[in-house]
Design goal:
single chain, 2 domains, alpha+beta
Length: 261
């Protein structure tokens, strides 16, 4: 499984002359692919990393004297991760699961589903008025896919470890999510949660959101916020607020969102 975490901490510096000074910051823990037996070793690494980051932050802040005031949140994302998996065979979107209207799901008969999703995203970006049904038909053409996506040197069907090369060739960041059934719901049916299976590179600002279906097929999420709201049955995100693509928390400031990512 692939595990990564983020923690939001508030530091405080007490003052005898005026108001106390508060400082918020995020600590990110690098994503790792581990087995169940390695969980405790991972937690020890996280503790060591947290200790180093706290020392660095308290030393960098003006005047020092800061101490931990509050841990505002700890987000741990866990996703089942299959190494060297090939992405290609068509898998339909689960019947009865909300959000299907926000999913672009190519058949991947003559071309890799990953390539078709990137091509579909780019066609829609240039021609927003073009219907998704027409785009779905267009990406069945290998010629169209070659026109919109650079995958020279990438073997087909695409493997998980090839995604980084695709990002570099096309200067995009590929975020991949999976659907997990929410077992906390009584009866265990009807509600699904979204889980981040692959965090895209931070090198490029253009983000393409993809959905892994059945562990072997990729679909495109047309609009991530719309899909997330429909899937989770949450209220629409208020104006001036931003949804984090990693932990799915709602942020008030865009700068904070960028730092968290």
């Amino acid at each position: 499984m692939k595990v990564f975490g983020q923690m939001q901490i508030t530091l405080v510096k007490s003052s005898t002359l005026g108001e106390d000074t508060y400082q918020d910051f995020w600590v990110g823990f690098r994503a790792r692919v581990i087995t169940v037996d390695e969980i405790f070793n991972l937690l020890e690494r996280w503790i060591e990393h947290l200790h180093r980051r706290l020392e660095t932050m308290t030393n960098e802040l003006e005047g020092s004297g800061f101490i931990i005031h509050k841990v505002r949140g700890l987000h741990i994302n866990v996703a089942h991760h299959i190494l060297q998996q090939r992405l290609g065979s068509f898998v339909p979107y689960p019947a009865g699961v909300r959000g299907s209207e926000s999913i672009f799901n190519p058949k991947s008969k003559n071309m890799s589903c990953v390539i078709q999703c990137i091509a579909g995203y780019r066609i829609h970006k240039v021609k927003e008025k073009t219907s998704w049904s027409k785009i779905l038909k267009s990406v069945e053409s290998n010629k169209i896919c070659h026109r919109h996506v650079d995958f020279i040197g990438v073997s087909l069907p695409i493997k998980w470890e090839d995604l980084g090369k695709l990002e570099r060739l096309n200067k995009v960041s590929l975020y991949i999510y999976t659907l997990q059934q929410d077992n906390s719901v009584k009866g265990g049916k009807g509600k699904y949660l979204l889980s981040l299976a692959r965090k895209g590179t931070t090198r490029y600002h253009e983000i393409i959101h993809l959905l892994l279906l059945g562990g072997e097929h990729i679909a495109l999420i047309k609009d991530f916020e719309t899909y997330f709201v429909n899937l989770t049955r949450r209220k629409p995100i208020p104006p001036g607020h931003y949804l984090c693509f990693i932990c799915f928390s709602i942020m008030v400031e865009k700068l904070t969102l960028g730092e968290q990512r």
